[in-house]
UniProtKB/TrEMBL annotation, chain A:
Name the UniProt record assigns to this protein: Annexin
One Pfam family matching this protein: Annexin
Organism: Vitis rotundifolia (Muscadine grape)
Stored InterPro entries: Annexin, Annexin_repeat, Annexin_sf, AnnexinD_plant
Binding site for Ca(2+) 1: G26, G28, R259, D302
TrEMBL record, chain B:
PANTHER family hit by this protein: ANNEXIN, ANNEXIN D4
InterPro entries: Annexin_repeat (IPR018502), Annexin_sf (IPR037104)
Coiled coil listed as a keyword: no
GO cellular component entries: cytoplasm; plasma membrane
One GO biological process term: response to cold
Keyword Calcium annotated: yes
An annotated Gene Ontology molecular function: calcium-dependent phospholipid binding
Name of the protein in question: Annexin D4
Native species: Vitis rotundifolia (Muscadine grape)
Length: 319, 290
């Protein structure tokens, strides 16, 4: 469930554009107004504001925001104002081009492929081609080590079926195939890749349940205890995003903050901005279960300024 | 036909039968019996006409999805058709076919492809999953080095079949068509010969590259094979398929290529092998672009 709160009566896109234009005029910038408006509009409303602003002022509001805002508020707001496919294409590109990237920075690719709908993944790929003049698969090939390429390219290529169709016999036999591959430390075996990248999500959830039933241990724990390095880490991310994206994002948020400061701003922003209109309410539930603290309290404690107000608005916190 | 034949009474029909010895023979039990061969010809012609009409009107996504399904059902002998569709359609058209396949058959193509038999499986899954960049940017340095990668794989064919090489499959299934044309060009520059000469024993790879880089040559050959006297039913079906699926795409270039390769106009070959309404439909589809 989305956490974003909308006001009872929404001004017209023209009224919003006018107030935003005033806030972005002159030498300073009224960040509070920008956050107050944009932090309380859903995707359709933000698009209308973008289009109206362009018509009225002959300028892209995103460009204006880029030139007037700074720091982490700018990062968050630009992501928020882009439509979801472009936003995720930008996030994927940023993760792929980052020098000295750690494995958890590739999580965004797994999230796009496994924690959203197949149609969204295809839209991200289309956006990626338009923005970066090459396909997402090609940039994965150029920027990721060979051992991870097969799985990551497979994950982003596949257009999975979106119906709840499960073949329980297949689930059982594929649980066995996966088990064998993990035991033999053959995590990049073709069968593993094809099973995880081409089956529909419902089928895979059934496969993971069969796995637990047959081997009395969850599949991600088997991967963990086999000590399978970077590839194992990605695979566990895949499994968690398929089974429970809320838990995955709750973990991402937890890993991004330390008492009184945020050690990984990018991950915190990504988790909140990309899920505010999808399942942030569930993520907050999982977060509380994990940490016995509410996300609202943690964001209050570990972030500051107008940026904090923006994040609070997105997670539907009571200010 | 309906307006003429439908008006005939039994005397007209009898008279027609008696006056057309080509179609009707005098049976020993004293009735004009329809010659079996001609029934077969008529059946075939009506069937071909029905096929071409249905395929022509059908949405291209549904058409491709049904062709893919047919190929998967037929097995390894029809894998060439999977390669054809995956490689000669635009990225959006291929995605459309994948959407239609899900609506029609309740599975994704890649899911089904991952369970096919044979060493082509890796290549086929990756081909049907591809969404290639279609702009003009090409990294010449990468194209050049990938030409070398291909050459090395071809040279080592006895040690490992390139079709099972992850790196080779990735090049063929993720690079843009323009990029692959550059790879082919560099191959010729560096090694002095066309890559398809070196891929003669690796048919799937050869067809893949040809479909991606020179679809007109590929379709000309498919058409020519369909015209041969000893062609089987599948090969002959290609005539309808190619004309219908390429009519709005690159039929003009295919006609020119066919003329160049086989020194005879495509329309003439069609006149030679096709009959009746089926033939007329084929010719009109070609004439609209020529």
């Amino acid at each position: 469930m989305a956490s974003l709160r909308l006001p009872d009566s929404i001004p017209s896109p023209a009224q919003d554009s006018e107030r935003l234009s005033l806030a972005l005029q002159g030498r300073g910038v009224d960040e509070k107004v920008i956050v107050w408006i944009l932090g309380h509009r859903n995707a359709i409303q933000r698009k209308q504001i973008k289009d109206t602003y362009q018509q009225l002022y002959k300028e892209s509001i995103i460009h204006r925001l880029e030139s007037k805002l700074s720091g982490v508020l700018k990062t968050a707001m630009i992501l928020w104002m882009n439509e979801a496919p472009e936003r995720d294409a930008i996030l994927a590109n940023k993760a792929l081009k980052k020098k000295g990237k750690k494995i958890n920075q590739l999580q965004v690719l797994v999230e796009i492929a496994c924690a959203s709908s197949p149609d969204h993944l295809m839209a991200v790929k289309q956006a990626y081609c338009s923005l970066y003049e090459c396909s997402l698969e090609e940039d994965i090939t150029s920027n990721i080590s060979t051992s991870l390429q097969k799985l990551l390219v497979g994950l982003v290529s596949s257009y999975r079926h979106d119906r709840e169709l499960v073949d329980f016999n297949l689930a059982k036999s594929e649980a066995a195939k996966l088990h064998e591959a993990i035991e033999k430390k053959q995590l990049d075996h073709d069968d593993v890749v094809w099973i995880l990248t081409t089956r529909n999500f419902f089928q895979l959830r059934a496969t993971f349940v069969c796995y637990k039933q047959s081997y009395e241990v969850a599949i991600d724990q088997t991967i963990n205890s086999s000590g399978n390095g970077d590839l194992g880490s990605i695979l566990r991310g895949v499994i968690l995003c398929i089974v429970s994206p809320e838990k995955h994002f709750a973990e991402v948020i937890k890993a991004s903050t330390v008492r009184y400061w945020t050690k990984d701003e990018d991950s915190l922003v990504r988790a909140i901005v990309t899920r505010a209109e999808i399942d942030m309410t569930k993520i907050k539930g999982e977060y509380f279960k994990m940490n016995n603290t509410s996300l609202d309290d943690v964001v209050t404690r570990d972030t500051s300024g107008v940026y904090k107000s923006f994040l609070m608005a997105l997670i539907g916190a009571k200010i | 036909m309906a307006s003429i034949l439908g008006k005939w009474h039994s005397e007209h029909l009898e008279s027609f039968r008696k006056r057309t010895p080509k179609f009707f023979v005098e049976d020993e039990r004293l009735f004009e019996r329809w010659d079996d061969h001609h029934i077969a010809c008529l059946t075939k012609e009506f069937l071909q006409f029905k096929d071409i009409v249905v395929q022509w009107i059908m949405h291209p996504w549904e058409r491709d999805a049904r062709l893919v399904h047919e190929a998967i059902t037929k097995g390894p002998q029809a894998y060439g058709l999977l390669i054809e569709i995956a490689c000669t359609r635009s990225s959006e058209e291929l995605l459309g076919a994948r959407k239609a396949y899900q609506s029609l058959f309740d599975q994704s193509i890649e899911d089904v492809a991952s369970r096919l038999e044979g060493i082509e499986r890796k290549l086929l899954v990756a081909l049907v999953s591809s969404y290639r960049y279609e702009g003009s940017r090409v990294n010449e340095g990468t194209a050049r080095s990938e030409a070398t990668t291909l050459a090395i794989a071809v040279k080592n064919v006895d040690k490992k079949n390139p079709i099972e090489d992850d790196g080779i499959v990735r090049i063929l299934t993720t690079r843009s068509k323009l990029h692959l044309k550059a790879v082919v060009k560099y191959y010729k520059e560096i090694y002095g010969k066309n890559i398809d000469e070196d891929l003669d024993t690796l048919m799937s790879l050869k067809e893949t590259l040809q479909c991606l880089c020179n679809p007109q040559a590929y379709f000309s050959k498919v058409l020519n094979d369909a015209f041969k006297d000893d062609a089987d039913e599948n090969t002959k079906d290609a005539l309808t398929r190619v004309i219908v699926t390429r009519s709005n795409v690159d039929m003009k270039e295919i006609i020119e290529e066919f003329d160049k390769q086989y020194k005879v106009p495509l329309t003439q070959k069609i006149e030679d092998v096709a009959l009746g309404n089926y033939k007329d439909f084929l010719v009109s589809l070609i004439r609209r672009v020529a």
